[in-house]
Amino acid sequence: MSFENLGLVPELLRAVREQGYEQPTPIQRKAIPVVLSGRDLLAGAQTGTGKTAGFTLPLLQRLAAGSRSGGRPAIRALILTPTRELAAQVHESVRLYGGHLPLRSTVVFGGVGIHPQIAKLRRGVDILVATPGRLLDHVGQKTVDLSRVEVLVLDEADRMLDMGFIHDIRKVMALLPERRQNLLFSATFSAEIRALADRLLDEPTLVEVARSNAAADQVDQLVHPVDRERKRELLSFLIGSNDWRQVLVFTRTKHGADRLAKQLARDGLTTAAIHGNKSQGARTRALADFKAGAVRVLVATDIAARGLDIDQLPHVVNFELPNVPEDYVHRIGRTGRAGNDGTAISLVCVDERRLLRDIERLLGREIPREVIPGYEPDPAIRPEPIRKAGQNQGRRGGNGRGRGQRTGTGQHARPGGNTRQGGRRARPAS
Ligand code: AMP
Fold first, then answer.
1. Which of 74, 131, 264, 316 could form a disulfide linkage to 269, CB 3.0–4.6 angstroms apart?
2. What percent of the chain has pLDDT over 90?
3. Using a 6 Å cutoff on CB, does residue 48 contact ligand 1?
4. Are 3-213+403-425 and 219-390 in the same CATH fold?
């Protein structure tokens, strides 16, 4: 099966060739014909499967084929994404794949000035990529007209719901013409996603690829059991002794990401952190430095890392396991993408046994353990509860900033303070 066989027009085939893609990925093979036919689509696919091209290529083809009534273009396709990073990346794909077609596009997201966005919208675009909050800001200011939308795409819909965007999505839906094509992409199919699909989609075709455990097969996974207080030391040791040059490290909380980044910097590793409390400029800069090799370690929270597309990322480290097993699969999906090999290493302490068990249950197999000599866990250390973190992360209007970091994660401080991994007291000044 080739891109030619999928019935794409020469302008798109040329763009695909320029990207170096030789053949369509499974989600592209399945989704492209459905989207071209104009039907609604419910797609189970996560980042790393090539889903973006799976909806962007046929979308571009449909828009290019439909007549534009001359003059200023109207927004005919609206693509909603949960995060700024994903919006920027999807828009980049729209630009790349649509480079040989006479279609205009732009992207709007929060955290940056609204006026340049207004200027671009005023000039007219065929395709708008947006995060829901900023899109509604534009609606409020009457700087965007959604009355001509023919195709709506909800990308990473599960994450949009996790981030509390359901009301915003409903508001946007109410502004769209009734007759339109709807495409919903989601890595998981929770009850909420099904309810949204029921409401949004009209007799959708269901396509599903790489069930949440399949992506994991391309990646070498390993667990290093270690004590919670020695994780940072072990991480520095692994990076140094293996001479890893580009490592993406996950923590559960924003505070944890900042603290770890500082500690690694003290260990002499060039490190940056990205999470929801960082300005858009800081996040973009950190990602660019990481991609360019100027930053060796990028520490990220799950939401900030969602949708990051870093080619051939060789190493992903789970400094802390995620609370939600599916997030593990998303995290390790950052490595070994599109056929490249990668390694995903998890530093697991005694507190995280249950999380590891849930992840292995989802994967349907055990992840091999390897104790690193010198870092053997102390069997006398008792497990301690893990805070439910991340509840404020990425939510619009989140108020984590400036408050006590610990309460900012939705967990009350426990009496008699302890030395939990995610919430231990500040180290004595040294
Ligand atoms: P996505 O799942 O859309 O985030 O895409 C994951 C990565 O796969 C991106 O880096 C794409 O550039 C790449 N990709 C998409 N389609 C193909 C393809 N047909 N062949 C090779 N790589 C691809």
1. 264
2. 61
3. yes
4. yes
